[in-house]
């Protein structure tokens, strides 16, 4: 069975079609990298799958571990085990990281019929996750992303992922703006969660991240659909040659289908 | 997203029930005779009646103010009843055992158990129901510390010298239209006196409840902290859900003598009216403190209720080195209107004031901050810091800021910061993506926004205030 199966997904924002018949099949334990030019629809894919309001699905299906996602509210999808690490994590002033993450973990536990964690147990878990992403423990008390640097925000996303232990993680450019050390931290976070019953979609522009997180497949997303799929070596080719040799193709294809 | 937030904001007013209690209520109407009857009901001495009648004459010559950023139907003062008391209160109950069980049940239902063994340890409560105080708890324990905490109607009888000296000393009768009316018709409220050098051994709290239809509530609170004393006081209020508007026009006077400190917190949850603006309390309140040398007063308020709020808890910093603080959260939703803020009047040298105001507007509501900072000619080295933050939920509400600064002393410093933000779609989505529903997300974001104010509330009440916001923001998410 697939962990995530997306079939013929068409989606639009403000009447503008952005995903244009996208197919993606991810088995448990696999890591899929998604690359592609700016504006191709990579972030949109993450938003559509995770149920962000304003992103309208016109056609297609997306099934997470047997659960039909597209009928669920965003929070229900999260509780079903879907996690999105944001490209631009937003600040929530005054709400401590601790409070935010405990509420999230408890909401997800409640949905699974489990009791809320005691504050003490949660604190132990949170401290562990915080050290794993190499943020000082003081970050647990600070407002969610409040005044964090770009790199700290990305690490904070990974900390949340570690605590929520999702089935499917979508990382949207979690490497952009990171120095080598921070990149290593993000990669270690992901690798520590890798297991046979968990899958990842890693959206990135840089093959560099994929040196640390070895993908099983690399896809090229352009103009709202996957135009090329290969193994880890495809990332190297893209790094060397860019996307032009592929997207040229795609423009013709699009012209054909819309004709 | 806006739709989702709107749904999250629809909610029931939990304190909206009516208690079935037989009451003695005056027929609507206001004239000298009504004032004489109120005074007689309370068996007041002549000087008190004279004081009321003088205030009534003053009020008759005044005009209802129109400067606030609020819009409401003119109040028909002849359509209001000025006195209502549970019948069971006719012979004053001597102890809790004699209090009408229905009254106790009402407070219990509101989460204010009055039986001392069930209460929050360390909080003494004066419960005011319509026009009378039904019970004041822990009086003996306070008495041992020399602290007087009793209904003001009783203080008029028992401590006339204190009342005569201080009543109207902070808010003069002619101060404003609603204050003058209150002076004429006030019915009950709390009286507190903390003797010299005494730290009040527990939190004091008054819980106001309007129950009867067509009645106004005009309570009067007077707190005197003698030299070097300290007290923390909390006021809470609710009213049943009714279709017509009800008037609440209170006056609160605080006197902080040399080196004294008063912390006054309010959690105001009067019925706000329905989503179309029908019904709800008109909350026109005058609250003011005078601070003598080295004294400190802080006002902390969490305002979520009332159809219309008009309220500016203020500090007159008369003594040198005195300190005034104002921390406020005002949440409006539906058709609510709030015009609230503070006045810091710096008279003494090196006086300091801090104003932190957090306004949250949702639905079609309007939320205004109005603040005056006045630096008098003698206020050498005085300082004020003001921070006014507005949070908008949805795009049909309004937030307005009216800061007034008057400086007559070149050495005084006034700082003002203001921000306006929105609960953004990005924030909502982040919360939901982590598994939180829209309702929890809004309440968490709003609570975070209010953090600086909540941390000023006494512990028990900070929790209560957080919950109140959560309830106020609660509703069905479909
Ligand atoms: N909220 C939105 N409103 C209008 N256009 C949008 C919105 N979000 C994304 N788009 C457009 O959709 C396209 C894909 O965007 P995005 O998914 O962010 O691309 P990528 O992440 O691949 O760079 C872009 O052309 C972008 O301008
Ligand atoms: Mg993107």
Automatic annotation (TrEMBL), chain A:
Domain (ABC transporter) ranges: 4-248
Keyword terms, alphabetized: ATP-binding, Nucleotide-binding
CDD domains documented for this protein: ABC_FeS_Assembly
Lineage, opening ranks: Bacteria, Pseudomonadati, Pseudomonadota, Gammaproteobacteria, Cellvibrionales
Family affiliation: Belongs to the ABC transporter superfamily. Ycf16 family.
The protein's name in its UniProt record: Cysteine desulfurase activator ATPase
Entry-linked Pfam families: ABC_tran
GO molecular function terms noted in the UniProt entry: ATP binding; ATP hydrolysis activity
Keyword Ribonucleoprotein part of the UniProt annotation: no
Signal sequence region: none
PROSITE patterns per record: ABC_TRANSPORTER_2
Automatic annotation (TrEMBL), chain B:
Organism: marine gamma proteobacterium HTCC2143
SUPFAM superfamilies: Stabilizer of iron transporter SufD
NCBIfam families noted in UniProt: PRK11814.1, sufB
Biological process according to GO: iron-sulfur cluster assembly
Similarity field: Belongs to the iron-sulfur cluster assembly SufBD family.
Listed name of the protein: Cysteine desulfurase activator SufB
Domain SUF system FeS cluster assembly SufBD N-terminal: 44-199
InterPro entries, per the entry: Fe-S_cluster_assembly_SufBD (IPR055346), SUF_FeS_clus_asmbl_SufB (IPR010231), SUF_FeS_clus_asmbl_SufBD_core (IPR000825), SUF_FeS_clus_asmbl_SufBD_sf (IPR037284), SufBD_N (IPR045595)
UniProt-listed PANTHER family: FES CLUSTER ASSEMBLY PROTEIN SUF, UPF0051 PROTEIN ABCI8, CHLOROPLASTIC-RELATED
Residue intervals of the SUF system FeS cluster assembly SufBD core domain: 208-449
